[in-house]
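Handout for the seminar on molecular recognition.
Each group receives one record of this type.
Step one: identify the two inputs.
Step two: read the structure output and locate the region that could contact LFPHGCPZ.
Step three: write two sentences on what you found, then compare them with the reference statements printed after the record.
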Amino acid sequence: MADEANLGRLLEHLPLGIIQIDARGLVVRNNHLVPADLRAGCRLQQQHPAALSNAVHKALAGENALYEGYCPSTDAPERFLRATFLPLNDGKQVHGAVGLIEDLSSRRADELELHTSRLRNRLLWAQSALAMIEWDELFRVREWNPAAERIFGFSRSEAIGQHAHFILPDEARRMVSLEVLDALLKQQGGSYSLNANRHRDGREILCEWFNTTLVNENGQTLGVTSLVQDVSEREAAQTHNRYLAEHDELTGLYNRKYLSQRAEHAISLASAHHPLALAFIDLDNFKHVNDTLGHSAGDRLLCQLAARVKAQLRAHDCAARQGGDEFILLLPDTTLPLAGALLDELAAALAAPCHIDGHEICVTVSIGVACYPQDGEDFDTLLRSADMAMYDAKRDGKNTWRGFRAPLRERASRQLLLESALHRALARDELSLHYQPQFALEDKRLLGFEALLRWHSEDLGVVSPAEFIPVAESCGLIAMIGDWVLQEALCQLSCWQAEGLSPVPVAVNLSAAQFLQSDLSERIARALDAHAVDAALLELELTESVAMQRPGEALEQLAALHALGVRVSIDDFGTGYSSLSYLKRFRLDRLKIDRSFVADIVEDHEDRAIVEAVIRMAGALGLKTLAEGVETPEQLAWLTAQGCDAAQGYLLERPVPAGEATAWLRAQAAVAG
Ligand SMILES: Nc1nc2c(ncn2[C@@H]2O[C@H](COP(=O)(O)O[C@H]3[C@@H](O)[C@H](n4cnc5c(=O)[nH]c(N)nc54)O[C@@H]3COP(=O)(O)O)[C@@H](O)[C@H]2O)c(=O)[nH]1
């Protein structure tokens, strides 16, 4: 009994579970370390993993047996057990077995964790997109993963044992980097750096480094582990984006946004002693280059010109492309006279011929200049002032520069007012035509009318065409308005026809925008058809400068109009620069001598000489002549004596509303009838 008690105590103090099994496989005794499901009363050959039952069976058959595996448990998560079964025999036969049970659950979990973490590390090492490098305490490569091979181009075998030198770009940076490495070994924990490195092929690459110093439990540095990523492309993209944020992509000049920041800074430094000028440059007739040679040629021209602008600048000046064919210059420490001198030099540099696709292109520019502080105290105001001055330069014949003047501001706001009112004018039916009679000088017979546009604006009152036609031209409304004039004049002609009046031709002014429409003759043919008006009753007037703007195209356009049967006359003749050879080839009917010559023919012998020459030249080319703006009987007499064919002017009749023109025709019909 005492032995039994001692054995019981011993079993309770054993550091492992122990069970006694009888010959039937029934657990008859256990200590407290045995899991509940294996304690006394449980039959081990039933309801347990087969391998466990087999081990018990084997022990009861007289052999030592081992089971290692999971064992279900009702009181706890499944356990991982090692059970060793030893048969108990009395020398003759086996009458049971002893099982020694070790619960290996937590050791097993640790092993599993270790195993999976090793696996994970191996996978990470092999498949990581980041280079993983292990350095020893002398900064020699201890490990080098496939991503490192990819990023630096050195294979693992080439890299192992190499000092960090081998991926540093050049001597100077090597020194710096080595200092950084040294510091890294001394410090503990992690660090980040962005370094220039060298690829095996000699290329410089930019890498991000995340380093961790490896230290043992005694604080001794064992080396460094680095995670590295090649950020060359990302950095290049960011650098490019930064460049784009400040530059014009086409020309490489700065963009307006950047220049505005520079200007605001310069303004903050400017004072009476350090004035500042802003120049707005617009190429003259650049559209023509795009239209004739194409946009790619236009782009190359802009690049050539931008390079010349850059070359002309002083060190502290700044040039930007505002867009299209517009450039802005910021000229710090510059007064208006100095800006003028600089811009004259710039214009001369830009005027030198450019060679594009075998074409020689000569460019002129119109420039507006605004000065701080008198023309604006911030960038936007200065730019607006320079823009207005540039338009002033355009109005003054282009190819020049103009400084800002206060009246330009009023002019610009009037222009804006006119523009928005003009947009409403057609819809509100505010436009009408007046008709100015034209007479034969030989017998004072009514030859025809010139249709002249009138605008009675609800908001602005009567506005002269001399004021609103240029506005309509600049804001792109002129083609639509011109079309309305054509329809209205043809409508009037067809009314006169319907009334049985024998109508006379009506002359309609054609703007440049209309004359350059590629389908102009088709449009006119359709309009004539729609109003059932004979083409011979329509005369189209285009100014000399419009005809000569693109003489090649004008030649074709005029031939098409001539084929339609409409008449064409050149308006304001003498004010442009007609090429006589083109004039000879243009299909024209009449030259209208500009009223600026007619005004002075009595007193000014030069104007007289010009008018005489025009009349003779027209006669030689088989063209009729009409003198505009005849205001005095002396002018009329002189023109008649020179053989001018026709005249119009206040002396003879002012432009009259349609009703009065109709009355004219009726009176004429009455006299004839
Ligand atoms: N594209 C279009 N342009 C048009 C149209 N209608 C007119 N215009 C152009 O506007 C400018 C001013 O025209 P307007 O104020 O109508 O002046 C015309 C005549 O009234 C004026 N004129 C006629 N006789 C005399 C005169 O004896 N003295 C004098 N001082 N002025 C006179 O001349 C203008 C006609 O000019 P022109 O067209 O050159 O024959 C003017 O440039 C018009 O062309 C339109 O529908 N479309």
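Reference statements: The mean pLDDT is 91. Residues 2-108 form a domain with the Beta-Lactamase fold (CATH 3.30.450.20).
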